[in-house]
Amino acid sequence: MARALVAGDKGLLAMDESTPTCNKRFAAAGIPQTEEARRSYRELIVTTPGLGECINGAILYDETIHQTTRDGIPFIKILSDAGIIPGIKVDIGAKEMAGHPGEKITEGLDGLRGRLQEYFRIGTRFAKWRAVIALSDGIPSRGCIEANAQALARYAVLCQECGIVPVVEPEVLMDGEHSLQRCQDTTEEVLRSVFRQLSSQGVLLEGMILKPNMVVPGLKCVQQETAEKIAAATITCLLRTVPAAVPGVAFLSGGQSGALASTRLNAMNVSSNLFRSGPPWALAFSFARAIQQPALEIWRCQEANTVAAQKALYHRADCNRAARRGDYGAAMEAT
């Protein structure tokens, strides 16, 4: 199942925004923040024609996984019929970490075994848990890194116990003024800690997917690097920290624009000179806004805009499919 999630030139679509996050994006686009509006938007996504040509798996939210189309067909069935594996976000969010100002710990382990068993029963075959690592003066602390790494590992082994593939997401945030090198150093430290904990908990590396941040300078850093330098830094970081047994690395977009995320993913997949005989893991994508945002801005809760929004969604997914092959370029944005 883990291999299937990153097979071919496809990736994952993250549509697991929590209700507050989804409402925030709706408010910015002038869309009503109601359950029906969220259901309608997610129906638009799962019924996009040809989506299975670019997407192996879709990460859903608890509200979404129980929703149906207007005609009463469960979203899980729509996805499965399109050849897309249903997944689920199972953490309950990053909370302020006691004794560590400016840092967060992700919660949701209590009762997780029972929730995973139920998700498996209804057809979910993979899950996601996100740890948030802020990068600023004096942080992240060792305590924050280790606590989040242990939570990721405990979540992952619970998933595998229930027959579900864990997507392990340690995200070093893009916010701030940090340099490319500082991001690389911190990401390496975080990933080393995560894999130590995964080993300690007995997680089967062949049965998981890693969903890390790309190694990038902070959004406020004066020195913004080329896609080639970002690819080199990211791949070097992965080679130093990620065991070859892991089937795939599915990058998060972290707030990057769709075109920028595709450009950087493409650069990684053409950087074959950084490997002796090709990468040991698939270099895939697990994007949310970098695929969804254009469609959301077109749709704006107007049924007449649905077809155009779905075309925009498919286009962004197809751009990332091309980036996995190293075939993405500016010309695709002009079509």
Structural account:
This protein is α/β, with parallel strands linked by helices and 335 residues long. The chain has one domain (2-333): TIM Barrel, CATH 3.20.20.70. It is 45% helix and 15% strand. The protein has helices spanning 2-5, 19-28, 35-46, 62-65, 75-81, 112-121, 142-161, 180-200, 227-241, 258-270, 289-299, 306-325, 330-333, and strands spanning 11-14, 55-60, 85-89, 94-96, 104-106, 126-133, 165-172, 209-210, 248-251, 282-287. A hairpin with a 7-residue loop joins strand 4 (94-96) and strand 5. Helix 10 (258-270) packs antiparallel against helix 11. It is globular, with a radius of gyration of 19 Å. 48% of the residues are buried. The mean pLDDT is 95.
- Total number of distinct structural domains: 1
- Order of strands across the biggest sheet? 8-7-6-3-2-1-10-9
The CATH architecture comes to Alpha-Beta Barrel
Look at the structure and name the CATH superfamily.
Aldolase class I
Helix fraction bin: 40-55%
For the record, give the distance between the C-alpha atoms at the N and C termini, rounded to a whole number.
Answer: 34 Å
pLDDT averaged over residues: 95
E-strand count:
10
Shape: globular
Number of helical segments with 4 or more residues: 13
CATH class: Alpha Beta
Can you tell me the CATH topology? TIM Barrel
Reported for the largest beta sheet, the result is: 8 strands, parallel
Radius of gyration: 19 Å
What low-confidence regions span 5 or more consecutive residues with pLDDT below 50?
none
Structural class: alpha/beta
Write down the secondary-structure element order. HEHHEHHEEEHEHEHEHEHEHHH
* Beta fraction: 5-15%
